[in-house]
Amino acid sequence: MNISVVIPNFNGEELIKKNLPKVVKAVEGYKVGAVEIIVVDDGSTDGSINALNNLIKGQLSSFKDKIKILKQEKNLGFSSTVNNGVKKATGEVVILLNSDVVPESNFLEPLLSHFKDLQLFAVGCMDKSIEDGKITLRGRGIGKWRRGFLVHARGEIDKTNTLWVSGGSSALRKSIWEKLGGLNELYNPFYWEDIDISYRALKSGYKLLFEPKSIVVHEHEKGAIKNKYSKDTVTEIVYRNQFIFVWENATDYSLQFTHFVFLSYHFVKALLRGDWAFFSGFFKALVLLPKILKSSFTYQRSFIKNDSEVTREF
After folding, report:
1. Total domains in the fold of the chain
2. pLDDT per residue as tens digits for the range 153-168
3. What is the C-alpha to C-alpha distance for residues 182 and 83, in angstroms, rounded to an integer?
4. Is 138 exposed, middle or buried (0-12, 13-18, 19+ CB in 10 A)?
5. What domain range is 54 assigned to?
6. Fewest CB atoms within 10 Å of the CB: 19, 94, 140, 313?
7. Residue 300 domain-assigned?
8. pTM for the model
9. Domain-embedded: residue 217
10. Rounded to an integer, what is the distance from CA 49 to the centroid of its chain?
11. Strands in the chain per DSSP E
């Protein structure tokens, strides 16, 4: 089985210099098939490209033929960057790693072992997430529909079922990715895109798994989002993408009815707490409604499960 590692990067010069050699070390011993690493630079304005070239010429020269650099002239956002990387991937299985993620040395074998099941779309890693100086174990997601929105949360790591896999630490089957249409680029610049494709995969009858033996370390606070965007902007984008997710994916009539009935409730609550980002996110999603509906009609052609069937076990 050939594998491709896709790493999106935006202004992550220091992360690339520190973490890319560790990624190479974690995959260079793979002998069951070919391996390649594709770094997709999302219009960085720092020294990321120079850092990559220096690594390839120097420290990683023995692996240089297996490292590809794809440079985007403009900053497009996470979905577009990952999609472009996966398009260039030659492996049957693609491993997605953010630039602030470091896999442990033995992460690969348990991750790939599940792909004998041809209905399996993706497997999520155990994410040792460093938050405020503490480690939180993440990687398994749960969720339920509540008051017209999908409310998602961290799931306990003693089970292997998951509602989604992270776009920053997971492995996926490229052929199914292509059938699903990849990440929806309406979610650019970030957030909800990995939950979206995972949810669509489940509604289309494919499987997701969480693999606790495949461990990565994730330094969230060093990623590009916290360094580029204000807290208010991030909140607005999250709200906008929540609306996109519902309007695109909720196909149960009862769920659609609940969503619109509870909109007034959510508006009043946001008004009382002075949450202007909620209103801004709503109107920015509303502007995209024609594109959202177009995506929804396209995706629904492959759905064989309804929303209640997908979320019931969580």
Report:
1. 1
2. 999 999 999 999 999 9
3. 6
4. buried
5. 3-228
6. 313
7. no
8. 0.95
9. yes
10. 23
11. 3-9, 35-42, 67-72, 93-97, 101-103, 120-131, 134-138, 141-146, 149-154, 169-173, 207-218
